[in-house]
Amino acid sequence: MNPPQPVSPLLPRPAIAAIAFAFLVTMLGTTLPTPLYAIYSARLDFSELTVTILFAVYALGVVGALLCFGRLSDQVGRRPVLVAATVLAGLSAVLFLLPPSLPLLVVARVVSGLAAGLMSGTGTAALIDAFAPERRTTAGALAVGANAGGLAVGTLLAGVVAELAGSPLVVPYGVHLALTVVAVAGLYSFVPAPERAGRVSVRFQRLSVPAEIRGAFVRAVLAAGSGFAAIGVLTAVSSLFLARSLHHDSHALAGFVVFLAFGGMALGQLAARGTGPRTAIVVGCAGLVVAAGILALALAAVLLVPLLVAAAVLGLASGLCLNAGLALTVEQAEPASRGAVSSSFFAGLYLMLAVPAIGVGLLASAIGLRDAGLVFVAAAAVLVAVVGVLTLRSAGRPVALAA
């Protein structure tokens, strides 16, 4: 008896590579400023609240793009939206290359958020479309890998360049701009144009989720969103915490802390491939509770090693939850609504990323950065514990899957 033949993807491999590369490059640009916040803070006299707001406006830009354009790729095809997202990423790099000021940085972060919002929903849907139903797990893993991998590489690249280059606020964005040009060329060269394009609708759109997956959708968003919230706060304040509390001025170290989180997220989604989605969410929630405890230790005792361990565990657990969330939501949607479901999923995640970051910034103004972080860590641990218990209780119920 002949061994089973591997299922071929629905798009040529160069097209899949071009989509994944554009996804990675767009997300890379969103974390480039992370290890540079301490430099911006010193030059422009930023407070903790200003830094967290700068981070949050990016996330709000993501949500705005998802709400206004979340179903756009279902209407006009994937490639035009992928190209638009990558071009916006390049535009954000140009804005960051201009002499910095607070208003300009806000605009640059919003544009970067718009790019990430378009790419998060459309890139995920495009990669899942590219594979046969039997290989949706591979597609979901590739999408999360490109997303988290881009976020990880961006912060590490900027941190290392800031440490070694004479122009730390110029070179990272110049490299990113060049990469966006290559990514746009790859999309046009290898990704097929849509056979037919519908009418463009640029307005607030009600993102819908099929009734049969709504329960799983809510649990998936809360689980993965809790991980996003914790990583978001870590991303927004770690550079200042290292500089002001731990007295470590290394920009490479600041980038490495966040790299551990997003690199761990990429590894976590690989680990989730061999695990059932519900099991992955439960294990991921448990991991997030553990990470919250280690992070609380790092903040309370002002220690570097627990901060590094917390970042890695946080990333791994978030990756498990994110991959499982995609499996229970986007991968179960019909192709005609996959873009909307994907956008709804990421809109929920980025809302949970933005709001706590602003909350920590506001609280830090009153009680200090470390105490504000401890309050947030306790709240996040309670939330993910509840989601884990609810997921365990739902384990015996059947999940309706799309054909």
Structure summarized in a few sentences:
With 403 residues, this protein is mostly helical. The protein has helices at 13-31, 37-44, 48-69, 72-76, 78-97, 102-129, 136-164, 171-190, 214-244, 251-272, 277-301, 304-328, 338-367, 369-393.
What does the model show?
- The protein is an all-alpha fold and 403 residues long.
- It has a single domain, classed as MFS general substrate transporter like domains (Growth Hormone, Chain: A).
- It has helices at residues 13-31, 37-44, 48-69, 72-76, 78-97, 102-129, 136-164, 171-190, 214-244, 251-272, 277-301, 304-328, 338-367, 369-393.
- The model is unreliable at 1-8 and 398-403 (pLDDT under 50).
Which structural class do the helices and strands define? mainly alpha
Residue runs with pLDDT of under 50 for 5 or more positions: 1-8, 398-403
Mean pLDDT rating: 84
Estimated helix fraction: over 70%
How would you describe this structure in keywords?
403 residues; mainly alpha; Growth Hormone, Chain: A; disordered N terminus
